[in-house]
Amino acid sequence: MFVRGLKRKCFDGEEDIEGTLAGIKAIPSYNLQRQSLLDMSLVKLQLCHMLVEPNLCRSVLIANTVRQIQEEMTQDGTWQMINTQSTGQASLDRLVSTDILCRSSREQAEGKHVPGYSTFTKDFEGDQAQDNSETMSTASSVQAPRNLQSNVWEMENPQENKGNFQKSLDQIFETLENKSPNSVEELFSEVDNSYYDLDTMLTGMMSNTKMGHCDGLETFSSPSTTTSNSNCKSDLNELDHIVEILVES
Amino acid sequence: SLAGFGELMQDVLWCFSQVKGTVDTGVTEADIISTVEFNHTGELLATGDKGGRVVIFQREQESKNQPHRRGEYNVYSTFQSHEPEFDYLKSLEIEEKINKIRWLPQQNAAYFLLSTNDKTVKLWKVSERDKRPEGYNLKDEDGRLRDPSMITVLRVPVLRPMDLMVEATPRRVFANAHTYHINSISVNSDYETYMSADDLRINLWNFEITNQSFNIVDIKPANMEELTEVITAAEFHPHHCNTFVYSSSKGTIRLCDMRTAALCDRHAKFFEEPEDPSNRSFFSEIISSISDVKFSHSGRYIMTRDYLTVKVWDLNMENRPIETYQVHDYLRSKLCSLYENDCIFDKFECVWNGSDSVIMTGSYNNFFRMFDRNTKRDVTLEASRENSKPRAILKPRKVCVGGKRRKDEISVDSLDFSKKILHTAWHPSENIIAVAATNNLYIFQDKVN
User: Which end of chain B offers a freer environment for a tag, N or C, measured as fewer CB atoms within 10 Å?
Assistant: First the structure.
């Protein structure tokens, strides 16, 4: 899509680089800058969810930028490099902060549901330290609050957008590890179904149930079963996996 | 006097006239001006702010005793147009910020304007009251009800003069028609209808009917996952009541004819400039997003504003603009930083002068730019308190783009990106401009000999 030489114009300060030696340095720097642009864009999309409805034009433009980067990285073959240990770590940190974000917004929206949720989070924080081999036991402790969780989701219709918010945030980070080219569309679809239209919100709820608890757990219990790209859980860190199950609708 | 009407164009010298608003260094968010608009005669100038208020200024009659005052604008009416609301279904606030004000042409003694926030359009009537009735039968002068059994004589109330009072009353409220955020309103040349545009839809209203509107454009995809483009601005043609245009976040303009179909999803004309491959970057689409579209007074041209340029299009030529003006091309190398601090999403507006010979738009550092379409000359001016001595001539400003900076120039890195001129207005027939700089409104006029 782009000629290598032209790409160097894309970022600030690149024009100052002179000479072949600096030019050679510029090529890995380009990938780094592209990656940081991708990260910045994803953070921007996340920060959209404030008290006021997010600016749709801005969200669309950022999402298109993310898609563009993704397409280029897929063509470059650099998309594969994303799923490394270090990024897994980083995404875990982000998942924790997502949890906090979600809890604070839930607190204002669902007073009575909070106790169940915070009980769960205590379990989650305790589980963080566990390694992969203990995931089966974690799974069983997860199943206990699952019913509470499903109650939360079912009763949550008017507040459904908040649940999808959590879900969409998880999908944001899932896209970093998910090699599916459709992931940006999904990311964007969840964001919008939540916020913009009662009709699509409710139909979104309907289509979300395909990724519901049962599906999640089935996937978990038989990890070899992967159906759609959105259930491509086996690629993920197991801890991320547990959070995925717990916050999916 | 009108500039550029076929005569040898002398450069207009712009002078400071007035500034409205406080000088406080800390700006109250609610005072930030979000829209500016002259009415059709230029007698009135309206501003809307983030706090949902509308302030209308009226030009005073020119006095022979003080010819140099050239008709100053003074506050005529202030009212709260919109209040903050809470959408309980979505658990989201609806801002009271006034996105746009549009005047209706005057048809009687009262003035009418449309003001809108993200969701609701309101029609306001602004009228003067300088008489009041006195001598009611059933109540006395204090307003207290009189005992009917005590009344022995009937009288006819008479109108007596009183101090001038300007009242603003909401005559219509056009609500619940927009799922997304309203970015534009435009009064049709038939004066009976108007349109309101949000990110994905455009609705047509009749002024008399508030519980119904016709949807004339809908670009919402069946599957929201496929959404890649939104509507950014829309306007009716100034003379042809069946024609309107709307711009998009992908830098395109569509002209639609309402006679062809009820739902104008198919455009009659499609304006798009082919992309310049040498300038391609990850930010290309964002900077091509059109933030404003305006018909010329003649109706022959449209002007669009994107992040770095203003373009003039001939309605008869769809494949490229006839003129392109660089507003602040020195920002092209800073796009990544401007993306990071969100400035790249700033929506600048643009305006024509009365004769369509000069166009104006804002920039950063409280700079605004004017482009003369005939002489091809342009000027950068600044709205600041330092240049606010009465009738002081504004000195042209220059941004230094590298190399040695001259004494009066300012370097790109010194620009204040928090001081942005997004909203400006040009008097319909005179060289008077209104420039909104955050919470201050500047009025400039051309030099009077």
Answer: C
Pairing assessment for the beta strands B410-411 and B399-400 based on DSSP bridges: parallel
What is the per-residue pLDDT across B4-52, written as a single tens digit (0 to 9) for each?
Answer: 443 344 578 999 999 999 887 777 999 999 999 999 999 999 999 999 9
Residue B262 in 3-state DSSP?
coil
In terms of Cβ atoms closer than 10 Å to its own Cβ (0-12, 13-18, 19+), residue B428 is middle
ipTM of the complex: 0.91
Beta partners for B270? B254
Question: Phi and psi at residue A240, in whole multiples of 5°?
Answer: -60, -40
Instruction: Determine whether the interchain pair B345/A57 forms a contact, defined as Cβ–Cβ distance below 8 Å.
Output: yes
Give the SS3 label for residue A170. Answer: helix
Pairwise CA distance, residues B433 & B379, whole Å: 14
The low-confidence residues of chain B, meaning pLDDT below 50, are 1-9
Q: For chain A, state the CA radius of gyration.
A: 20
Three-state SS at B137: coil
Cβ atoms of B359 and B373 closer than 8 Å: yes
pLDDT tens digits for range B83-135: 999 988 888 889 999 999 999 999 999 999 999 999 999 999 999 999 998 88
Nearest to B91 among A37, A63, A159 (CB): A159
pLDDT above 60 for A108:
no
- B311 to A50, B326, B367: CA distances (angstroms): 35, 9, 19
**Distance from A132 to chain B by nearest Cα, in Å?**
34
Measure the CA–CA gap between B217 and A161, rounded to whole angstroms: 27
Instruction: Quote the CA–CA distance of B206 and B187 in Å, as a whole number.
Output: 10
Q: How far is B83 from chain A (nearest CA, A)?
A: 14
